[in-house]
Automatic annotation (TrEMBL):
Residues 134-150 have a biased composition (Basic residues). Signal peptide: none annotated. It comes from the Eukaryota. Belongs to the FPP/GGPP synthase family. It holds the Pfam family polyprenyl_synt. The keyword NAD does not apply. One of its GO terms (molecular function) is prenyltransferase activity. This is Geranylgeranyl diphosphate synthase. The lineage of its organism: Eukaryota, Fungi, Dikarya, Ascomycota, Pezizomycotina. Residues 1-12, 22-37, 69-79, 116-125 have a biased composition (Polar residues). It comes from Zalerion maritima. Residues 1-102, 114-150 are annotated as: Disordered. The keyword Transferase applies. Keywords: Magnesium, Metal-binding, Transferase. One of its GO terms (biological process) is isoprenoid biosynthetic process.
């Protein structure tokens, strides 16, 4: 009986019967699978009855593979390492590990040998010859998408290859013997502007928000008499300004102040230790500035007045911390050292650089007293002062200012104000009560009268020094501003 092969796709032998070289369709048909694009593909014998789906898989010539992989040195991109040899299959859409390339294919052949590697699509009997004409139709559609996927895979492989080539050897340990021969960074050899800004940060912060710059006004007013060379005057003005700003940084730390010129104090921003170091550093930078004068007197004047400044500050702190009320004379001595020190420093330096023989020190001593006593008065009574430094800050600091000393000594049997200072109050109600108490003892009126008397004394001394030269206008205007 002549038999014809009713199932040509199985490639049955024409000899009939069973043969070991003939592969028959398995009774356990491979279940339906989905392609990489989600299309259903039937492996049954009736697959040829429905049109095959459009495939995203296509053969790629070996030349194209080599061209696509030429930009990468990673060995995983060579055709020999990709299943299928010169052919390849585009990976399915979706995330894939960056260091993995998968080539998928289905092989079903009749014969004695079945390859474990995927075959080109044109020879795949499951896809069948019927899909070959569909491949040409979908080539233009899948070409762009396939190129994009390849570029992504190559990029990921390059990244993985780079990471794999990172050096893993530990760093070479430093050689201690270099300290025996290398030039060491002594002193300021490696100092730079960035490091300088770190040290001067607190100083720069306060210096950027200047006050009334009263000391510069004093220097300019006295220069009408002393006629200091412009270069020297610039150095003196700069040095005095640096010393004044640095001393304010220290004052705010020692007084536990919260505000300075309506802003948070520097040590609240930079810290106490850094602020103290910055202020001390600027003291010596100011000394270096004065060395530009090349005047031996300048160094001795600097040392003398800085000693006076710290003496006055030390006594002020002692009275506060021991709750000791000083006498008025003790107070005037303290102010002459602490506040008057920087005023005298500027005027003495000007006299050292001037050809004039006028002695302005007695006048500047009185101006220093006027300035501090007036400041004590304003601290307890001026709304503007309260805005800049806080309401009655001297009470919060426990400071024995001029009106407070007068009020306590006006009635030694009443300890209310002394006890308020001991508490260092922050409550406004307590502070207002203390102010009312001092008003009752006449301390504010007394302070105003003292300021008035000192201003008149200063005016008389100005007239004596000027001696009809007509150069006292600047100082007289300055005294006018100090009237309360």
């Amino acid at each position: 009986m002549s038999t014809s092969n009713p199932f040509p796709s199985l490639n049955l032998s024409a000899g009939g019967g069973s043969s070991s070289s003939t592969t028959f369709q398995s009774p356990n048909v491979i279940p339906s699978r989905s392609s990489s694009i989600g299309h259903h593909r039937d492996n049954s014998l009736n697959a040829s009855q429905s049109p095959p789906p459009k495939s995203v898989l296509r053969p790629v010539p070996e030349a194209s593979w080599l061209a696509a992989g030429s930009s990468s040195t990673d060995s995983t991109m060579t055709p020999a390492n990709v299943p299928g040899g010169s052919g390849t299959v585009s990976p399915p859409p979706g995330p894939r590990s960056p260091d993995t390339v998968v080539a998928a294919g289905i092989s079903c052949t009749a014969g004695a040998h079945t390859s474990a590697l995927p075959q080109p699509l044109s020879s795949n009997p499951v896809v069948g010859a019927s899909s070959s004409h569909q491949h040409a139709h979908s080539r233009s559609h899948s070409h762009t998408r396939s190129r994009s996927r390849k570029a992504s895979i190559i990029s990921n492989l390059n990244h993985t290859s780079f990471m794999a080539q990172m050096p893993t050897a530990p760093p070479v340990p430093p050689d201690p013997s270099r300290f025996g021969t290398d030039e060491l960074p002594w002193g300021g050899k490696t100092w730079n502007e960035d490091k300088e800004r770190i040290l001067t940060g607190p100083f720069d912060y306060l210096f950027a928000h200047p006050g009334k710059d009263f000391r510069a006004q004093v220097i300019n007013a006295f220069n009408a008499w002393l006629d200091v060379p412009e270069d020297s005057l610039e150095v003196i003005t700069k040095a005095v300004g640096m010393l004044h700003t640095a001393s304010l940084l220290i004052d705010d730390v020692e007084d536990s102040s919260l505000l300075r010129r309506s802003l948070p104090v520097a040590h609240s921003i930079f810290g106490t230790a850094q602020t103290i170091n910055s202020a001390n550093y600027v003291y010596f930078v100011a000394l270096q500035e004065l060395q530009r004068l090349k005047n031996p007197k300048a160094i001795s004047i600097f040392a003398e007045e800085l000693v006076h400044l710290h003496r006055g500050q030390g006594m002020d702190l002692f009275w506060r911390d021991t709750l000791t009320c000083p006498t008025e004379d003790d107070y005037l001595e303290m102010v002459g050292n602490k506040t008057g020190g920087l005023f005298r420093l500027g005027i003495k330096l000007m006299q050292a650089e001037s050809r004039s023989l006028i002695d302005c020190v007695p006048l500047v001593n009185i101006i220093g007293l006027i300035f501090q006593i007036r400041d004590d008065y304003m601290n307890l009574s001026s709304p503007e002062y309260s805005h800049n430094k806080g309401l009655c800050e001297d009470l919060t600091e426990g400071k024995f200012s001029f009106p407070i000393i007068h009020s306590i000594r006006s009635d030694p049997t009443n300890f209310q104000l002394l006890n308020i200072l001991k508490q260092k109050p922050t409550e406004q109600e307590v502070k207002r009560y203390a102010v009312t108490y001092m008003e009752g003892t006449g301390s504010f009126e007394y302070t105003k009268n003292v300021v008035h008397v000192l201003i008149e004394r200063a005016r008389k001394l100005v007239d004596e020094i000027d001696d009809g030269r007509g150069k006292s206008g600047g100082i007289q205007k300055m005294l006018d501003k100090m009237v309360v």
